[in-house]
């Protein structure tokens, strides 16, 4: 087993460490093995299935590749009081089943979808007790074969809440670039029993296709300024 424990200090890696629960610069040679720890205060043990390492990140095959980062308590239900997912991606299609997961913990999930004319949409879904919520970019925003920064913020404490997405720094809100395709109902379903997966779902049936360069997960809603700062510093 190739197990590497990396420095826990975020200062030389992560632009904004406050509230960061998971940080995976998958281009980093220290994360090139089949097993590694995340570069954050928690050091989540991540196990790779497929997902070939390269200097620009991990390449996922759109069939069965994934990185499993477990279900540490710090990763559970991070959207309860507001959370954020961010990633640098370079998709080659919209992935397995037209819903290639960038990052998922059962549900919530952040994924590519609806490929058309060389582009894909980004979608975010959250499971609730009666009916799940799902929102996607109104247009196909991410160009296949192009490195793109994507982010989503959300608070699952109320069905009235909607996520905000960011595509290469451009804000997308419901009615202005973001469409609600399923309106949530009930109470949010806990993800505490499920592992956090990069590039797939836990069942291995929604593999992302293309490169994932870097991913972040926060237990707070990052401001537009913070998200843009991360994009600028890491682009």
UniProtKB/TrEMBL annotation:
Pfam families for the chain: Laminin_G_3
InterPro entries: ConA-like_dom_sf
Molecular function GO terms recorded: carbohydrate binding
Keyword set, alphabetical order: Lectin
SUPFAM superfamilies: Concanavalin A-like lectins/glucanases (SSF49899)
Protein name, per record: Putative lectin/glucanase superfamily protein
Organism of provenance: viral metagenome
């Amino acid at each position: 087993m190739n197990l590497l424990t990396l420095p826990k200090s975020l200062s030389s890696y992560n632009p904004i460490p406050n509230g960061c629960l998971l940080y995976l610069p998958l281009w980093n040679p220290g994360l090139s093995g089949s097993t590694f720890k995340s570069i954050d205060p928690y050091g989540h043990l991540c196990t790779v299935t497929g997902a070939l390492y390269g200097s620009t990140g991990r390449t996922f095959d759109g069939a069965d590749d994934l990185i499993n980062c477990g279900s540490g308590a710090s990763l559970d239900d991070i959207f309860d009081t507001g959370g954020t997912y961010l990633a640098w991606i370079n998709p080659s299609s919209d992935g397995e089943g037209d819903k290639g997961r960038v990052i998922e913990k059962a549900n919530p999930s952040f994924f590519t979808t609806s490929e058309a004319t060389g582009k894909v949409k980004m979608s975010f879904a959250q499971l609730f007790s009666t009916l799940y919520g799902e929102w996607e970019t109104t247009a196909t925003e991410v160009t296949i074969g192009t490195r793109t920064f994507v982010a989503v913020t959300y608070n699952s404490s109320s069905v009235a809440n909607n996520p905000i997405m960011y595509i290469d720094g451009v804000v997308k809100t419901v009615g202005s670039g973001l469409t609600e395709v399923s309106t949530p109902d009930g109470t949010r379903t806990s993800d505490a029993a499920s592992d956090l997966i990069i590039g797939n779902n836990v069942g291995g049936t929604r593999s992302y296709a293309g490169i994932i360069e870097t991913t972040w997960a926060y237990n707070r809603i990052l401001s537009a300024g913070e998200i843009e700062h991360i994009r600028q510093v890491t682009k």
